[in-house]
Amino acid sequence: MANKFNLVLGFCLLAVALSSGERARYDNYRVYQTTASSPAELEVLKNLEGASDSIMFLDGIHHINKAISVVVAPHKVPDFLEIMGANEIEYELVESNLQSQLEDDEEQVAKPNSYARSLNYNWNQYYQLDDTYRWMQQLAVEYPGVVTLIEGGKTYQGRSILGVKISKSQTTKPGIFVEAGIHAREWIAPATATYLINQLLTSNVESVRNIAQNYDWYIFPHANPDGYVYTHTTDRMWRKTRTPYGSCFGADPNRNWGFQWNVVGSSNNACSDTYAGPSAFSEIETRSFSQYISSLKGKIFLYISFHAYSQYLLYPYGHTASLPANVKDLKQVFDVSVAAMNKRYGTKYTGGNIYDAIYPASGASVDWAYENVGTKMSFCYELRPSSNSVLTGFKLPASQIIPTGEETMDSITAMVQEVQKLGYFKN
After folding, report:
1. pTM to 2 decimals?
2. Would you report the helix, strand and coil content of the chain in percent, each value rounded to 5?
3. 141 partner at 20 to 30 Å CA-CA among 23, 184, 266, 326?
4. Where does the record locate the signal sequence feature (predicted)?
5. Is 382 a known active-site residue?
């Protein structure tokens, strides 16, 4: 969901690197914070977004008097500064070399096939896709009758969207669906999903054991496998799918779902990070995944999506400021969940309905699930770090995976209990 680091592959310098198979680099790319103080100034920024693929916005351009961060390629700095000056738009340089913020990422990641060698999957490092898939496959062997490996769909490059169903009861229980990693660069999201899986299987905490026992869980750590692999091999800041569209690649898989598709908060430009695709469900990832989720209609009653970053908890809608019919219940669950998130480490979450709390964004999975699958409890977590962490948001240190998982487990436990109290779960 997070519309930050709106980095598009069209950067002319990056295009050279990527065509030769090298990793994308952001040497001497500057990051500025701008603030539009009037609708006219905001319109200048909106026009600038689509005018050059060497000037990329890190935040949605929706509000006046709100800081908006921008990445500017070295050769485009003079033009950018001239436009800011001519239109009297406030700006501040916050980083002169974006690449310096990304240098230590490789130290945070387990080497390929490390799980296969060590059989010790843990939450002290970020894992590549194949290792997480092997781990889930092994869980199905270690927990027969409890863990079932499930395929939620396919990708453009032919990968499976793999997940696990956890069912500790011998009878069918109300279902809870968890989707993570739909935006490739948000590594903490799949890491938190795997932490959740492990806790549901191994925790001795009574409240966690209760929600593990009394519900069927469908958990998919990687809803965008092609994109996630690409963040490891080529471009750490990649967000979208990998479907080719002319000279650009990928659509935003969280703007591509078939509910209020491309109404607001998305782009028709194939090079944009928020490209909605040529049509709803144009991406095989969202199309096949939605078909799987639809097959569970009548079985799942709570839908949870993990994103990063900003420390928000969000609920429908993203396409309009109009609120859902059951907003009072959603707000009640929100309050309880945010309070639980805060207890362990004092981590402060805010949020509310997507449109007002973060920015307009149509075609998102949580809205689609709310309207089409009967999951009237539908939430999106924007995980650590806070919205103030512009330069390090997507590269949360691996040392924070476990604390993030712990507090999120606290929050989800409270969420499930409150949804149960409100009577949304049905056998």
Report:
1. 0.89
2. 35, 20, 45
3. 184
4. 1-21
5. yes
